Amino acid sequence: MATPPVAPPVAAPAAAPPTGAAGPTAMTGRSLAPDLARGTMLLLIVLANIPWYLYAATKRDISEHPVDGSVIDRVVQTVMLVAVDARSYPMFAALFGYGIWQLYTRQAAAGTEHRAARRLLRRRNWWLVAFGAVHAVLLWSGDVLGAYGLAGVILVALFIDRASAVLRIWAIVIAGLLTVVSALTLAVSIALADTDLFAAGGSVEDPIETGVAEPGYLASIVDRSLMWVVAVPSQVFLSGVIPVVILVGILAARHRVLEEPERHLPLLRRTAVVGLAIGWTGAPPPPRSTSTCGVCPRRRTWAS
């Protein structure tokens, strides 16, 4: 007796492509270089902020470093002023931009819908603004998380899907404007240095110092909150530094500069030599003396 033919198996329906955001990257799948760079910059930012908490010290005109101290203190201050202060802050912003593109491409590789990936970036940046607000209210009015988050929201909306040439042009334009404004500001400051404008006038409170040196905690919350509300949009829209370096970070991530450094050795060498030369020579330590300038911020101590 013949055996009846077996019906062919019915193919299982194809799985629908994922539409939600991909989960966190496993430790084995993370790129080590960007993580190490971000951690190093965070450490340097912590070191750069320490002088703000030396409440009882007499400070310099231009920086928060004390005017007194031992030879070792002088050496440390010089290294901080030349290589750390005001340098780790934009470097971390560049790494922040690098991470934005890494997250975006990882979502695309996982099959996440385009709109879902953009929503994820937008949500994460708004959360960063929220964390920055809490940080400023509770602890530190010089918070930069809010500025990074706000810049991220805006730049993702405007540039995340644009061609690299567009990002490059905008970064050059903003950097050029920033250079011109900085040069004009320096020229005006030098021209007015010996005039009556800098010889008379009332003292002005430094808002960051007010937030950290105010003995009443509730009063300090008000000081820090007001400072943060003004500082965050100013850092994004007026200074221009954060948007430029975030765009540079996105461009670097598109070329996988940190994941594949062997392919970019000439660029990395030029950046190290030229960047360090410009950055370090542009940051000589300020004079030892304190200021008698009438419009300079009045230095406060914990007891003042």
UniProtKB/TrEMBL annotation:
Region (Disordered): 1-26
UniProt key word ATP-binding: no
Domain of life assignment: Bacteria
Transmembrane segments: 36-55, 147-163, 170-193, 226-253
Keyword Membrane: yes
InterPro entries reported for this sequence: Bact_Transport_Assoc
Biased composition annotated in UniProt, kind: Pro residues: 1-11
UniProt keyword list: Membrane, Transmembrane, Transmembrane helix
Stretches with biased composition (Low complexity): 12-26
PANTHER family attached to this UniProt entry: INNER MEMBRANE PROTEIN
Identification of the protein by name: DUF418 domain-containing protein
Organism: Litorihabitans aurantiacus
